[in-house]
Amino acid sequence: MDYRYKDVGVTDETDKTYSQWAKLVCEKIIERGYFKEGISICGMGIGMLITANKSPGIFAAVCNDSYSTERARLSNHANAICVCACVIGPELAKKIMKEWLSQEFHGGASQAKVDQIAEVEHSMSGRKSCNSQRSSFENYTHVLIHPIGGRVGKFLPGKKMISVVFS
User: Fold this and answer.
1) What residue ranges do the domains of the chain occupy?
2) Within 10 Å of residue 55's Cβ, how many Cβ atoms?
3) Does residue 35 have a pLDDT over 80?
4) Cα–Cα dist 43/71, whole Å
5) Which of 40, 63, 78, 123 could form a disulfide with 48 if both were Cys (CB 3.0 to 4.6 A apart)?
């Protein structure tokens, strides 16, 4: 599976402002009508997850294993995932990304749950969620890998930081 990608973020290895990078990924997803996806990798993934889920229509999940990756996509219609560079190694990270990008939400029994989550978002924010209305993904994604202490360099040898779009 080949993916086209575009750098969308981190340019300085000492930059630890993960919230601005998570926000940028979400803005790119929203700006493209929720037909794009985002992957963020940072030290723990939790701060990026919290930041991402503040954006309307973004359903982000922490994915550090195959099962959570599968459920994020197939049961929860996640359009963004956050991966923990401090917990998993480069091969598992690559596997998680490939698995997530190759799966597609088809609704079914999970559609009602996703719609309920969107309704909670709407009732709490007063804004209508776009997540429940978006169509199937077209295998384009914005990916953000955030360097924490140079750890991300082990994911992509020769690159200390990278943010990309896959297709």
Assistant:
1) 18-166
2) 18
3) no
4) 22
5) 40
The H-assigned helical ranges of the chain are 18-31, 46-52, 66-74, 90-102, 111-125
Q: Which of 42, 63, 82, 84 is catalytic?
A: 42
Q: Can you tell me the mean pLDDT for 89-110?
A: 91
Q: Does residue 161 have a pLDDT over 50?
A: no
* pLDDT higher than 80, residue 75: yes
What CATH code is assigned to 18-166? 3.40.1400.10
Residue corresponding to tokens 């099962």: 67
Helix crossing, 90-102 with 66-74: angle to 10°?
20
The label of the residue with tokens 């401090």 reads 86
What pLDDT is stored for residue 58 in this prediction?
Answer: 92
42 is an active site residue:
yes
